[in-house]
Write a sequence for this structure.
């Protein structure tokens, strides 16, 4: 099923980065508050987690408004459109930004997904992936269910609706027990906000609260993918939702239920690249951990060079760390054109090359210098090769590539769009082959152990590096059987 | 749930007419045919049946494309968008134009509705209303079903999907037996086209076939609301789908099953106003029947006057008939501005007055004349009053209003949007009160018996005139109980 | 110079009609009045005179707002855009609708044209053509003038600006004396409204005034192409602007100057087709004259037949007249789809055929009948052929074509887009050849004398029929010399 | 005169920076080359010089295409629109990006400006301001000229057109001699490209050439505001256009004429902020000079602190320099949201505060630290105050503000939009007052002498710092006399 999407972005940004699929946001306010505007600010702060679609639901306990479309938050929500979801006595809201993985770039796959059920109208926004979604979906299809979208959320909502004898919280907890994978969701009815996180805590979810000091409004609870979304609406961080925990907010306040205790293995890429550098997740600050990754890299793989240059902006933190630990001066060797975005270039290699050139341009800093180039990851390697090439054309005498993540060799089943396995350069090439491919004088990736130390914390999902999937894998044999048929 | 619809039409056209809710169209071609284009032509020919939204599905047996949006057919389907649903080896397609009644003006309520089921992906387009849809929906909600839209079609699709042990045709027939009301639907899977009509044949549905003389293509079957849609794609009329009949087309050709034989009572308003004047339904030509209505009116309510003037264009046929029978000259006394359409006027009475004035303007024909003004119906009476007023301002010395339908006193439950009962002027006013209200020198409506004779044929639904509902009424007590809750 | 015009109409409507190029409108109000809204209503009433572009200027004596774009009035002026030109104390306004001839379909050729001059900022909207515009333009180019557009209006404005020693009225009168052709213009400064009409009165222009009975507003003067635009804003017709007259309105009221007395020869096509049937121009009512044309046709070219059928809507008046005079019953034999408009069909003959079919469809009235088909004109003959064909396919046994204008054999130089001379079927074919081409059983055009009598009045421009150009012709040798060069 | 601009950016970005008004680009290719595409790449590379509008002209010696609109380059030029200006045998092209100063945000003020003249059709794109434009314009108005726009370019084109006895190059040189100010322009006819720069070289302009090594294309000349635009189209930098020089390219190659030798005083802000950090102007590299500014600042105003933090991205170069010279560690203390752009916030102070918060967010780097905050300039001071505040809220114990430009006290008359003089905080406050206003612990601006040394080079325009205007000032008394009148 193909929906036509005029003037909308494609999957190809020429940036060769892993892509997080979503950011989620929810609020419950005991007092009147402009939740449409708050949610706008909240998902705007999460824009880096998904640029394909944006949406929100707002309810005042009676009316239930929803608005969503393909595009950036500021594109989807112009003044009129934001007004159209605004409610004078808003009580609950959720919001979502999406980078599409499942179901590709379909307009009707935009979230929040809304539906009428025996528990009233519900809205759901989720980040992550259920590894057994197809299995559950096929079973439900045979039982007579309909699926309007190819969205995982619809499976979750069907599971909740099926338990017509349970209340919403119980039914949601029941659905959590049937679905496996890495996920963090916010769910709203007209009168309650629910947040829940997978037993491994692969995807992040935090709780915050707004002040009620001046009395004009207050005490509103916020649940979001990252703390930056809390700050955006004037809330302070209370704590992370625990792995396997379900929390809900209603007129009685905040409640918690530990549905499925698990061993915490949050996604390491949140610290490497995804999360904003002003966010702290599961107690670990991202910016500080990135600097530690750079310091670790400098200790593990020192090199004799003149300047340390980050690939802007993703290599910034690690470059500062590398420069500090090594004593080699940090410099701004690559200008990044802030207007480089979505052009209509065809998805050819030539066009991807051009995109890199339209986006990055070497400054005079690199001429005649031995450069340590710092990036957070290498996926296909194509962009890396072009960057190295740009530096050489600008007069760099040596380019030593240092990467603040281990080599990505395995696909992610928990909501990250890396690339097909055969396109992962580290999955099919040796270190030396990659070095040669990208044309660097030397190439080094941080070690898994080094990354773990730099992040610290209880445990980490490093499945894309080592193939050890803590939250399960899809039953591959089962995947396409009925799915293809329908 | 409100979706924001930028630049989209409102429900108020200032024309004070009953509104049909939909037109449906479907094709099955045994040989490659540009079904996207054919469906475009087909639903364009049905545009008068719904101007709020348009959509189509096309399948080649494997791919299943769908495209729909709010707007006219030519607005929704520009060249790019039509291309996006086009398939080289298209086999089945359906299309829809919608005037929204149930679920109001929601983008996601646009049809065809598509869904994945245990019978594969299905597309459904329907015209009409199921009077027990809420009842069935509530029952299914309790059983764990989800309803993404407020569209009746979703109930039909859920019923079909629930019968996981039946094939598609059997399950559809089963669903027909559970739903009551007036409806005409087309349903497609990847490999078959189904059409079905309610047991009373309240809503029209016809079958046609394209020639295969020259061999380049041929034998394609077409199912549509009116014959004009058949002609638009080069097909000839085979016959009407019978009341209570289900027909389907697959690689073996056209098949029929009489699911639920009933007493035919097709909607009288199809001949009075809805159907195009080049359509013939259930064996009765619309244009000829409209002339007969005018002749009947002239016999029932003659008047001494100088000219017969139609309200363009809906009163045209009856005005010609009235002029012929009475011998009073026909004249074009009201200019209709063809560009009058959707402006952004607020829905105030003053704005409605202005709309009429922007749309209709008297010509010199009426000055100093005693005018017989012919219209097809009076709903609220507001527009009629303004038209009478326009004629007087232009110098008409007398205005005798003749209406080719009986007074509308009851709401329609079978897919026609008349107005709330309290807004139906004939429901709350006597004939003399209405005459006074609209300011005519005399006012007469055709008699029910006269209308019946003018149309001829087996039987007619005249529920909006006499409150006798042949296809049942909603269980009003039951309507809003759970519906309001969710 | 090509401007890109997304989603905008092309020149081809498949209607094979002559196209008027423009409608003009202007208002001057001594008291605060919502002139933006009034001008919207005024140009909306003139929409039939041009569908390519619309625009308006509004001034309050200080601010000077202008807004214009390609599209219909209701497309260009949505609520926001109309608000953007609105002024609380508006005093003067002009408006324009355009069917592009000169300069083709350029966005920047939309009118009103505005410019800063030594007489302050001016806005000009014009209908018609200056036959010596290129000559004057070339002369001014050599004197150092710039021309940003290919619009004739710019020549007029340059001529006005050159006379820096004269006041605006004098300079405008001076410009009138230098330009020849057929034109009707409205011109505004911040504080005055001017209207002027060519010495032959080829193009129409009327003056009206609003009541000031209730005191809330009053006395506002209106100048417009047709009276229907006066009525649209609540004004009554005062009189036609005389051929060669210049009128202006300022705080002292309405003034007149006869700049260039000439022999009145208004364009006969205004009565045949262009002007709305509720307009009266130069004292002659259009609807009444069309009925007289039909009566005249019936007298000149009677035929034995069963029904008289108009090509809707342009043949309506003449068909009524023909039916009356001949005694043959009038019938509605061709259904016109009101939604037929601008599709994205390629400009091929096949596509034009399809357009006719999408727009017109025969009713049951014609089956087995000998039909007199009435249309106002034949330009290329292609549409006529298709209509005749449609009638035959629907069972008409004979089709007798009667045309309420003489054969069009010559191009119009006064603002009408007929077609290139070689495309004028009557310029290259005999009557019998045309008849054969369009497939009619007989074909007759009204005589020039008959047309003159039907219209009546002082004189008529019939240049497109007989090649006698009362307002001069372009110096063809001179046309493209410098123009091509730049 | 107000044009309505739907969905278009306002002047307020909440960034409180001076705004360059334009970037210009031109190409002449002796051999077929896709100049539409090249110009797209060229103006895309200059996007930082203007975000309000973009446009280009392309000619093949015969056709002359132009396309321009409000918006970013990638917004204005989608695939279809770029195609619409493309010419198979393109020979000359110019392009423009605009930040509007004169004439505000008008759609019809977008450049290139095109016009028909006695020298054929011309296109002009300019950067800068003519200080005597109004004077010249008023003189020409009295002589009968028209001005459709409020754009300075129109004055230049009128001057060129007036000299009907001269050829294009002579007439352009003549116009240069009549206009004063700071400007850099590209001008094209169908067959030639001209570039010229004001006698003081206030605005930059460079010449480059593409390789013709492989023979497929070659020798195309490029004239642009910055070298980055040359690199973007595969050209190498030949040299800067000299102050007062006019260069032109035609089928005979590149030619030069020194029209008006002057004392070079290029705008110092090009190095401080405007020019991209990968550009080198008048022989001085921007990135290197920014590092020197930071080093100079550290020498002039050392401070005891823990980290050096740039305001991203404008303070980056100077922050690196300050860190190097001072030995204080550089850190990334402010996260910049790359999606922060144009929202629909009202232009209130509260909204501006919010914009800063939506754009910048402190990282963990600043907590408990004494911060040296580096920015390139302070205009109104409002943004600076908010940034200081953000840092304090995030736990910075001290904030020492260092600015790599001297205090801006005077308006720029040469094309830079600083702000009205009364809004320039340094024009109305003492250093201590500003420090207090922005809430910093200390505040220091680089000295004028220090800036001069850091940039080096022959001379610098520092009018906005010291009020010494090397290229003249407007005759203020004369400015609004006639201009206001028209």
């Amino acid at each position: 099923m193909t929906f036509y999407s005029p003037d909308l972005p494609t999957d190809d940004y020429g940036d060769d980065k892993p892509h997080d699929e979503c950011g989620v946001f929810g609020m419950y306010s005991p007092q009147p508050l402009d939740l449409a505007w708050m949610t706008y600010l909240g998902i705007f702060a999460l824009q880096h987690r998904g640029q394909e679609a944006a949406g929100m639901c707002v309810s005042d306990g009676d009316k239930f408004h929803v608005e969503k479309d393909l595009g950036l938050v500021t594109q989807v929500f112009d003044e009129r459109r934001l007004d159209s979801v605004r409610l004078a006595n808003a009580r609950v809201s959720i919001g979502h930004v999406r980078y599409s993985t499942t179901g590709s770039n379909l307009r009707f796959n935009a979230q929040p997904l809304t539906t009428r059920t025996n528990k009233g109208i519900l809205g759901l926004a989720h980040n992550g992936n259920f590894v057994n979604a197809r299995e559950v979906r096929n079973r439900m299809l045979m039982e007579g269910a309909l699926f309007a979208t190819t969205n995982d959320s619809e499976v979750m909502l069907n599971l909740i609706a099926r338990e017509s004898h349970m209340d919403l919280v119980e039914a949601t907890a029941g659905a959590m027990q049937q679905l496996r994978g890495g996920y963090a969701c916010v769910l709203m009815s007209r009168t309650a906000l629910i947040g829940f996180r997978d037993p491994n805590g692969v995807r992040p979810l935090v709780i915050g609260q707004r002040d009620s000091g001046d009395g004009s409004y207050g005490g509103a609870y916020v649940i979001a993918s990252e703390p930056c979304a809390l700050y955006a609406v004037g809330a302070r961080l209370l704590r992370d939702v625990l792995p396997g925990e379900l929390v809900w907010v209603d007129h009685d306040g905040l409640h918690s239920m530990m549905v499925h205790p698990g061993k915490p293995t949050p996604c390491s890429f949140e610290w490497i690249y995804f999360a904003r550098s002003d966010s702290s997740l599961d107690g670990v600050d991202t910016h500080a951990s990135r600097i530690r990754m750079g310091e670790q890299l400098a200790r593990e793989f020192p090199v004799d060079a003149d300047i340390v240059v980050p690939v802007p902006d993703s290599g910034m933190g690690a470059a500062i760390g590398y420069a500090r630990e090594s004593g080699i001066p940090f410099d701004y060797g690559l200008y990044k054109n802030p207007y480089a975005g979505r052009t209509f270039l065809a998805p050819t290699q030539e066009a991807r090359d051009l995109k890199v050139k339209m986006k990055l341009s070497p400054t005079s800093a690199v001429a005649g210098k031995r450069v340590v180039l710092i990036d957070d990851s290498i996926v296909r390697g194509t962009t890396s090769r072009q960057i190295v090439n740009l530096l050489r054309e600008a007069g760099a005498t040596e380019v030593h590539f240092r990467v603040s993540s281990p080599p990505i060799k395995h696909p992610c089943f928990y909501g990250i769009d890396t690339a097909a396995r055969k396109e992962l350069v580290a999955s099919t090439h040796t270190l030396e082959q990659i070095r040669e491919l990208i044309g660097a004088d030397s190439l080094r990736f941080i070690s898994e152990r080094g990354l773990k130390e730099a992040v610290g914390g209880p445990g980490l999902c490093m499945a894309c590096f080592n193939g050890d999937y803590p939250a399960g894998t899809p039953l591959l044999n089962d995947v396409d059987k009925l799915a293809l048929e329908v």
Remarks:
- Residues 56 and 125 of chain D are 9 Å apart (CA to CA).
- The two ends of chain D are 11 Å apart (CA to CA).
- Chains D and B do not touch (no CB pair under 8 Å).
- The longest helix of chain D spans residues 286-300.
